[in-house]
Amino acid sequence: MSVAAAPFAAYVMDARTGxxxxxxxxxxxxxxxxxxxxxxxxMAFNAIERGQVRLDSKFLVSSHAAAQPPSxxxxxxxxxxxxxxxxxxxxxxxxxxxxxxxxxxxxxSEQKFAAQMTAMAKALGMNNTQFRNxxxxxxxxxxSTAHDMSVLGRRLFYDYPQYYNIFSRRSADAGxxxxxxxxxxxxxxxxxxxxxxxxxxxAAGFNLTASAKRxxxxxxxxxxxGNSTAHRNAVMAQLLDAGFGKAPTRAREVKPxxxxxxxxxxxxxxxxxxxxxxxxxxxxxxxxxxxxxxxGSTVxxxxxxxxxxxxxxxxxxxxxxxxxxxxxxxxxxxxGETLAxxxxxxxxxxxxxTASTKGSEDLLATARPTSRPEGDVAGADALLExxxxxxxxxxxxxxxxxxxxxxxxxxxxxxxxxxAQPAPRMALTEAPAPAPRQDAIILTSLxxxxxxxxxxxxxxxxxxxxxxxxxxxxxxxxxxxxxNALLKAELQESGALGAASGSVANTRRGFEPGFxxxxxxxxxxxxxRLGARQQDCTVVGP
Length: 542
Hints:
Strand 9 (205-214) and strand 10 (217-226) form a beta hairpin. By secondary structure, the protein is of the alpha+beta class. A 5-stranded antiparallel sheet has the order 3-2-10-9-8, sandwiched between helices. It has helices at 36-50, 63-66, 83-93, 96-107, 110-123, 146-159, 161-164, 184-189, 229-246, 272-277, 283-295, 319-334, 360-365, 380-384, 479-492, 494-497, 520-532; strands at residues 2-4, 9-14, 19-24, 58-60, 80-82, 171-173, 178-180, 193-201, 205-214, 217-226, 260-263, 299-301, 408-411, 459-461, 469-472, 501-506, 511-518, 538-540.
């Protein structure tokens, strides 16, 4: 009997250090479903902090956004709604129409926004992720991994702590309705849980990226391809428990370096007559320009060509220039280019780079006090708990913050560890489509896995050689019970099981969980330890 790797994946990390604790199919490209909205929200928080938009910016709802399938907030085409309400709806209710409206208004179109999301993912080290939309509905070429979603969850916690507590809300005022959390069941049932995001489609199964804190430890984990909400939550609870058990009590916190946003000068329009009269550059200058072109690996992302706030007329980037920038970003990603690291340039007078939300004091004044998770700061309340603000009278000269009147570029973060393995280059256009879901769940050891071992699908057989032995954990009447027994054994005796592969076989007598690919000595040792834990276990020979 042979068992192929199933489209189930899990990843557990120590959030303080980013170190891996557990990995199972963690780099397998699967459908992320609504976990995609974590990146949509990351991009929204980024736009707010850069001053491109504000929490009270009114976003126009397009017919495309209004037509998105459930889960929905119920937006209508032509409606204008504040960004704060769209963020709440996307984060808490996982509203597809709200997520699409966010993307369209920030980037000008959902397609451009998806290109910016993918470029941002590369800057964050999410090398097996590609986005095609803002809400996570199944689309060709839209995929991610359990590892990458865990990295994104950690980034949300560290990069935007002032907004992070939106993910722990059981309900929220979304302007036109009060929305309830899709993650309420897990938040209420697991001690210390404070986020982050659920996801479900038929192609993806039941997904969850979760974060929990107990004492000095914080664990972030992702499960992709669960069979049901209950099964997904149960697996997540066991993974987090194992994470808390294995994580050291004391660890030096290693915060991720945020991606740099560098303002680039607008390009000057050169007339054709000027081009004819221009003097040809010297040979050394040409050589230097060619070297710079060959070495250039900075991915450029465009500011919105349909900004919410008015831009000054000086140095405005045209839609054509923006489209060209996005095309260059997509080409850079396809070619496998890495994002260049460079120092932040000196800010020029009038250029807006960092956080600026005009009228934030008025927004904070309406906030009701609430308990905050670790790392939260004042300002999140304006997003989470504020009453609906009454817009103050504005003059034409001070209507809203000026958006970026130039392109911005992402700079790759500095490496976090000296012994970290470099991310392999890849061509996204050659990525295979995620495999359809199967019922079997494959689990491996809690010990860290060599990344090279996850590059291909492994097929395990009970027959053959010195590693042709395995163990059976008995028979169960339901698949979920069998999978829980398999996971429990995996978490309890990962050392004894070694590199054995686990699976659940559907037989005529029932569902049989077990492990294969073991030597006789390893199988007997594992069965002895599991038997001491009152777990049925039988050694299966070749």
